[in-house]
Amino acid sequence: MKVALFGTGLMGRPMVERILGANHQLVVFNRTREKAEPLKALGAGIAKSVRDALRSSECVILMLADGQAIREVLLSPSSRTELSGRTVIQMGTISPTESIAINTEVLNAGGDYFEAPVFGSIAEAKEGTLILMVGASPEQFERWSAFITCFGPAPLLIGPVGDASALKLALNQLIAPLTAAFALSLGFVQRKGINVDLFMKILRETALYAPQFDRKFERMIARNHSNPAFPTKHLAKDIDLFLGETGSMNMETAGLEGIRRLVAITLDKGYAGEDYSSLFDIINPEKE
Prior knowledge:
The chain is built from 15 helices and 9 strands. The mean pLDDT is 96. The protein is globular and about 65 Å long.
């Protein structure tokens, strides 16, 4: 199959490897061309423009930063004319409202669209073990399931377009509260002079434990948040999307809004491109 991948950020390289490993032809496009160039060595073609990428593909995978980036890249007047007869697979994290609107515009341009946001990070992308949540018709799911299994072994049909995006936001919303709560407890234990390894040993044996805690423990202890699996700026974006969707639902979101303020401070302190474990440095600042 001839595939185009738009967006070559942190997940770009492992996704390119998975697509090429499944013996598909691939061309990639990134708005900053220099970021895509290293993928040429893996066997991917580098498109000079969005139109060139669309013309050389049967399906387009979107791993762009947000809904605005999708509109700028895929739905510009010049790009829109090339969508006819092509399937767009949206795999990033955007709001259900955005996904439904983009679906309408792609259909109006003569293309096809469904969403398959993924849960997992770089390690899972490399291994092909991402969790794929699909928002599509049953017919689309049946047609495309075999193809998207190169990213994850068991894609799940959640419902129509919008449902998978909503479920992805519900999952991502949990990241910040879990991280903030763990950072607060870990910082408290440190300041009380209690052995942190003993704290972790006991925590792992309780119903309170989440594997995420061990993934962030060493980063927090070392205060080393470089080489992020998921940057703080992306966490902030997903919280904002979730709060935007719940704004009309008569739900009490004061807890998440408080954590969003912590994330905003983290961004202001220069951690936007660092791993979201950097919340620890704000919740438990180094003693002066």
